[in-house]
Amino acid sequence: MKFNKRWSVGLLSVVALISLSACTEDQTKPASTSNEAAEEMDHSTMNHSSSGEVPVTLKKAENPKFPIGSTAIITDGHMEGMKGAEATIVGAYTTTAYVISYEPTSGGKRIEKHKWVIHEELIDPQEAPLAPGTEVKTDATHMEGMENATVLIDEAVQTTVYMVDYTSTTSGEAVTNHKWVTEEELSPK
């Protein structure tokens, strides 16, 4: 009788242990960060290259950390093939850059936390910086359905923004006049 009781207690302990381990969360996986979420965002409708035209009210940076013609490494990838690419600086401007969310005017799913739209690409905005939660329209054309969309300001950063040329690290595609990369997203070569 004692043997059966011990065996039953042992078996019950093993079953309880297996049940508990099946209910626990896998602690070996790192939590997703906002940068990873941004990297996972679908940018297939993004205009990677642009004409290089900038708003007339945009002010050139007087003493940018990365002068026009210099090279730097892109440390944050808003889209595939950007992170780790060598960038040539083609423009440097002092402004407020925004992370935005919006419903594309062309339809489709809501775009969350798009980087970056600058203050000069907003239609009739109040004085910069706009507070998170502010809604305003944009005339930016970085992505299909962005022009004339009502956007929600998620974050505002007063910084130097750069227009850059680079070659995608994944496709080998040459990207020219890409708008925008912030100073914090570049490191010296």
TrEMBL record:
Signal peptide positions (record) = 1-24
Please provide the record's keywords in A-Z order.
Signal
Task: Give one Pfam hit by family name.
Answer: DUF1541
Q: Would the keyword Signal be found if you checked this record's keyword annotation?
A: yes
Enumerate the residue ranges of region (Disordered): 25-53
Highest taxon above the source species: Bacteria
Q: Where is the DUF1541 domain?
A: 69-119, 132-183
Q: Where is the composition biased (Polar residues)?
A: 25-36
- What name has this protein been given in UniProt? YdhK family protein
Species of provenance: Lysinibacillus capsici
